[in-house]
């Protein structure tokens, strides 16, 4: 596998309130698509955004052999959360202890996956499928 694209989103109704995550993992563009959609309890939007990234990373780690991910694979994460992407990329300071924990878990999972992983911000309009998964989970 040369590249994998991952679109993540998290949301909370009420902020804090009932929350859910969504992720779309596209391996071999147009051939294999995997989806993650689930409730995560009551929390904030930013917490849900981090949990969506973590859930996608866990999926990639657990499916590494099935997906054919190796050291030269490029994994592009896309999120509409500027805060989360900039914190993960080291551009914004992480002040909340819970988010520091998430950051460390992200770095650990990246090392386990052993690929080239990049995080990018995209406009909300380009993240509609992951957003739809969040809302489906919340509506269930």
UniProtKB/TrEMBL annotation:
<feature type="domain" description="RNase H type-1">
    <location>
        <begin position="1"/>
        <end position="139"/>
    </location>
</feature>
<dbReference type="InterPro" id="IPR036397">
    <property type="entry name" value="RNaseH_sf"/>
</dbReference>
<protein>
    <recommendedName>
        <fullName>RNase H type-1 domain-containing protein</fullName>
    </recommendedName>
</protein>
<dbReference type="Pfam" id="PF00075">
    <property type="entry name" value="RNase_H"/>
</dbReference>
<dbReference type="InterPro" id="IPR012337">
    <property type="entry name" value="RNaseH-like_sf"/>
</dbReference>
<dbReference type="GO" id="GO:0003676">
    <property type="term" value="F:nucleic acid binding"/>
</dbReference>
<dbReference type="InterPro" id="IPR002156">
    <property type="entry name" value="RNaseH_domain"/>
</dbReference>
<dbReference type="GO" id="GO:0004523">
    <property type="term" value="F:RNA-DNA hybrid ribonuclease activity"/>
</dbReference>
């Amino acid at each position: 596998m040369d590249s994998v694209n991952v679109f993540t989103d998290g949301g909370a109704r009420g902020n804090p309130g009932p929350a859910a995550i969504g992720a779309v993992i596209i391996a071999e563009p147009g051939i294999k698509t995997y989806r993650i959609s689930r409730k995560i309890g009551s929390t904030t939007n930013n917490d849900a955004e981090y949990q969506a990234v973590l859930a996608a990373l866990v999926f990639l780690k657990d499916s590494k052999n099935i997906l054919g991910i190796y050291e030269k694979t490029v994994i592009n994460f896309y999120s509409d959360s500027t805060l989360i992407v900039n914190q993960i990329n080291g551009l914004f300071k992480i002040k909340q202890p819970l988010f520091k924990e998430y950051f460390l878990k992200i770095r650990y999972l990246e090392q386990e996956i052993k690929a080239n992983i990049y995080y990018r911000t995209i406009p909300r309009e380009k993240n509609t499928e992951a957003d739809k998964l969040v809302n489906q989970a919340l509506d269930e």
